[in-house]
Amino acid sequence: MVPEKPRPTLKDIALQAGVSIATVSRALADNPAVMQQTRERIQALAAELGYLPNAQARALQSSRTNTIGVVVPSLINHYFAAMVTALQDAAEAVDMAVIITNSNENPTVLASSLDFLASHGVDGIICVPDEGCADQLEELHRRSLPLVLVDRELPASTIPTVVSDPEPGIREAVALLARHNALPLGYLSGPTGTSTGRHRLDTFRQACAEAGLPEQPVFLGGYEQHQGFEGANHLIGQGVKTLFAGDSMMTIGVLEACHRAGLRIGEDISVIGFDSQPLFDLQPRPLTLIDQQVEIMAHRAFDVLHELIEGKQPQDRYLRIPTTLIERESIRTTS
Amino acid sequence: MVPEKPRPTLKDIALQAGVSIATVSRALADNPAVMQQTRERIQALAAELGYLPNAQARALQSSRTNTIGVVVPSLINHYFAAMVTALQDAAEAVDMAVIITNSNENPTVLASSLDFLASHGVDGIICVPDEGCADQLEELHRRSLPLVLVDRELPASTIPTVVSDPEPGIREAVALLARHNALPLGYLSGPTGTSTGRHRLDTFRQACAEAGLPEQPVFLGGYEQHQGFEGANHLIGQGVKTLFAGDSMMTIGVLEACHRAGLRIGEDISVIGFDSQPLFDLQPRPLTLIDQQVEIMAHRAFDVLHELIEGKQPQDRYLRIPTTLIERESIRTTS
């Protein structure tokens, strides 16, 4: 579906003219919000470069609302609030607005959000998918609605996708814990019905094997604080020396369990968390954690969506942003 | 504009039939999603009570999307994330969906969000207003779009409004601090361009006067963490013994300032915060704080909006939910 000869796009003109894409778009529409002199300069440049929006692109453009939809599974989860905020920053930089829906991890709610967004004039959608909505998402994609999946992926999908790669962060974390002999490790896994839950758990197990460790205790949790709390209590009961939380919300549950049990993190027990947020910094011993670089992920996802909206084929349809380990003070050394 | 003889509404029928408003609505539309027996029972009851939707209500109903818009100034702020989540719970209980926009405290962004929502088929809007958008909100209200203001109010507006009343919580807090002799108090005020910022600051000053205290140091901040951080450093420099944060985000900034300065909260310095969230519980000494009962506020705001959408005049057009002081361990006693 890639055009044989790539034509110059609004972005190409914007780069050459040294103005924003929104300004080029307005100048080509002869919008008086752009100074006449600038309008003429941009129109001349577009003609020179051979810019010619095709009928479809023109039709799309004329019905554009400059608004995108963003669908996340939670807003109480600071990670997704940060993702939405970063997506909005990226959109505002090109004069686009964002409307948000929260599926509460409920595929029925997600399905009706997608229906509403697709039928009420958004130019494109960035969605944290649920595998229960795969057919509907594939259908929107086939109907050429600009669509990007973020954070989680759908197995065997060709929808453009931006996710984080858990491997670098988790491998480094397990190696660090093995070096500090903070063993046994207790891993709190996210739901295996999500790509993130599965991939992180597989990576944890592989990293343990590579570090020469026998199988370590795992608690199959979810993406809520109470599951982290229950899992931490369960793993503490099994005698683990480290609690390794597989997402943000379970990290909070782990903190709650340690707090209630009077366990001092980094002294009585080691803790490793997921994602950055003030709660994890403002502890007597700031948490060592795996950071997903959520702002970068959001900006990349927006860039891909923006290219699709502009009628371009994105260069990369599958992007993985590496996780990194941020080492702080929550790992104790057992001699 | 109140109808002379109030007719029974969907809610009245629902109460008498012992079913949800959504079920009544569906039964009257002869929707097969409701069991035939129930449909007939509800239709008979509606006839008996003389229920007759007027043409306007019918027209509105037929174009309804069962979707409301919610406009908040931040999602990184846990207080607003909790508000949105509670609004969504209330809406889902009557089969309505929620779409969300985040103004980032920017009146221009808020204005275009309102435009988008109003022109793209939401049945009503719940908005944390910005005083810079007062005219636009009044205009939407005049055009009879169901609209409820929440958290902040507009001076002299007749738009239905649900806010929290800072007085009980702040008065009790100041009295407690005076009793513990945790003086001088340093108050971090929200922006005086918001009703919440003004009302809390006025209440703080009055409460100090009533407790027989001379004027206490005040820092005029905002609703962001870095303003709490700067304000706390400034007030610590002035020798205060208590840091009293006037909102959630500045409470986080206060924690950050104490953390960096190595001040132990509840031992070296007293801290009192605003709003409940895990970060404030999971401290060596959990924070004493003023709780706004955000879930109750959200549910009341939704109830008012829902009445407006159903074509009823709400009983209360101005609701204040009292704040409460939650006493924990972050106040030290100075002898």
Automatic annotation (TrEMBL), chains A, B:
The keyword NADP is assigned to this record: no
SMART domains found in the cross-reference section: HTH_LACI
Domain of life: Bacteria
Record keywords, A-Z: DNA-binding, Repressor, Transcription, Transcription regulation
GO molecular function: DNA-binding transcription factor activity; transcription cis-regulatory region binding
Keyword rRNA processing: no
Domain HTH lacI-type: 8-62
UniProt-listed CDD domains: HTH_LacI
InterPro entries (UniProt xref): HTH_LacI (IPR000843), LacI/GalR-like_sensor (IPR046335), Lambda_DNA-bd_dom_sf (IPR010982), Peripla_BP_I (IPR028082)
Gene3D superfamilies xref list: 3.40.50.2300, lambda repressor-like DNA-binding domains (1.10.260.40)
Official protein name in the record: LacI family DNA-binding transcriptional regulator
Lineage, broadest ranks: Bacteria, Bacillati, Actinomycetota, Actinomycetes, Mycobacteriales
